[in-house]
Write a structure and sequence with these properties.
The chain has a domain of 87 residues: Arc Repressor Mutant, subunit A (Orthogonal Bundle). The protein contains seven helices and two strands, in the order ααααββααα. It is mainly alpha-helical.
Length: 161
């Protein structure tokens, strides 16, 4: 059994506690593609009902999806992205673009993200500075933030990054 990452003093670890499962990321992909019904998630993913039930419940509990009553003749629930879930668009786009670049290769992208305003593919997600200039990994420095624990502060004080 995987240990909970909720108590970690690291935003990456805590985010993985919510999203760090392959089925969970695929559920999110489907939600971004417009899938809403349990049966449709099950059909698109080929996932076992018990796994699907657990992952959907987890995402609802964590505020990423919400269950909405879509029944016209009785209760029938669908799942939709919450604002917290919609805020993952950049993460999902970056993950897809990484797979396109390093796994599928140029010209073999399974899906393209198109800007509805221009009709053109969106540019690669990238880090930029305050003036809009691209940043590389070597341009970044990590420092303890206001929510850093004593252990995190001590790690940086001793240079253990």
């Amino acid at each position: 059994m995987r240990r909970s990452l909720d108590g970690e003093n690291c935003s990456v670890a805590r985010a993985l506690g919510v999203l760090g499962d392959g089925w969970t990321l695929l559920l999110l992909r489907e939600a971004f593609l417009g899938t809403r019904r349990f049966a449709d998630f099950e059909r698109e993913l080929g996932v076992a009902k018990n796994v699907l039930t657990q992952r959907l419940s987890h995402l609802v509990e964590r505020g990423v999806l919400q269950r909405v009553d879509a029944g016209t003749h009785g209760t029938r629930y669908e799942y939709e992205l919450t604002p917290r879930g919609k805020d993952l668009a950049a993460v999902m786009t970056a993950l897809r673009q990484w797979g396109d670049r390093w796994l599928s290769g140029p010209g073999n992208e399974p899906l393209l993200a198109i800007d509805r305003r221009t009709g053109r593919p969106i540019p690669r997600v990238r880090l930029i500075d305050e003036e809009g200039r691209p940043l590389r990994a070597r341009d970044l420095e990590l420092r303890p933030g206001p929510g850093a624990s004593a252990a995190t502060r001590a790690r940086f004080a001793r240079g253990g990054t």
